[in-house]
Design a protein that fits this description.
The structure is a single chain. The chain is built from five helices and no strands. By secondary structure, the protein is mainly alpha-helical. The longest helix is centred in the C-terminal third of the chain and has 24 residues, at 96-119.
């Protein structure tokens, strides 16, 4: 294991690690903006390990990432080749939901047709919402045979 040599030059990877420590300390609130900026400026002017040390001397040591306990999985992962049993859905999505939504569209168009007829003094135009009723009827009748 090499000994710490304060007069040795460091690498750009070392500089990046120290910059990361300074950013983490700033994000944690350990450094305020002027102190963070000052240390970061000095980081890019120094060249040896001895000059780096004062920049991080009063900061806590580097900690590795730890998954927050809230996120940690409480169940162990299944063994390779074992598949967890999938729960059955007690409320499968019914085709009636599509019919229900389309029914609302048809009803809105019928109301619009009716209001236009009232606005014309009781002279209703041809019943154009029938073009929406045709696909609605096909969908509704097609789903009748499939329900159980």
């Amino acid at each position: 294991m090499p000994q710490y040599q304060p007069y040795q030059r460091f690498t750009e990877a070392d500089r990046d690690k120290i910059a990361g420590r300074l950013r983490d300390a700033f994000a944690d609130g350990r450094l305020d903006q002027p102190e963070f900026s000052s240390r970061l400026d000095r980081l890019y002017t120094v060249q040896t390990y001895g000059e780096l040390e004062p920049l991080v001397r009063d900061l806590p040591p580097v900690s590795t990432y730890k998954t927050p306990e809230v996120v940690q999985d409480t169940k162990p992962a299944p063994a390779p080749g074992d598949f967890p049993e999938r729960k059955k859905d007690n409320h499968p999505h019914k085709r009636g939901n599509a019919i229900g939504g389309f029914t609302g569209v048809v009803l809105i168009n019928v109301v619009i047709w009716f209001v236009i007829g009232l606005g014309n003094g009781g002279h209703w135009p041809s019943f154009w919402p029938v073009w929406l009723l045709i696909p609605w009827a096909i969908i509704a009748l097609g789903g009748l045979g499939r329900r159980r």
